[in-house]
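Sequence and structure are kept together here, with a separate record for every protein. An example record follows, reproduced without changes.
>
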Amino acid sequence: MQRKSLDVWVGLFVVLGAAALLFLALKAGNMSSISFAKTYEVTARFDNIGGLKPGAPVKSAGVVVGRVDNIGLNSKTFQAEVRLKMQSGYPFPKDSSAKILTSGLLGEQYIGLEPGGDTNNLAQGDRITMTQSAIVLENLISQFLFSKAAEGKEEQKQ
């Protein structure tokens, strides 16, 4: 009888461990955000998406209102085309703007939506036309270094 009780406790411990591993795997893969709520898809084009990945949140005023569904390259404009799955409970005006932001200094990237003032809302298949690309830290550093180098050359000429 004591052996049976021990087996039950070990089995329970193994099941809890497996559930914890599954939870961690879903969190690490950003799959815990899977939702079965009704959604609509919109697209946005960016010149540079930086480190934006599918599954990244779409936020407005700090609230997650959707997710990045897919990222591709438009072969005609050579811009990144980002497909967003927006939750139907959050309608946004057609003239809303989207920009790629970073959580903290080196955190994950997400899309920030700022609502416009249009009376018509975005619908399935619409495109957000006003976009702002990601600020890439490496580009900022190289611009700073080149400007300092140019200042140094000008001082040497004088």
Q: What stands out?
A: Residues 1-32 form one domain. Strands lie at 39-46, 57-60, 63-73, 80-87, 97-102, 109-114, 127-128, 130-132.
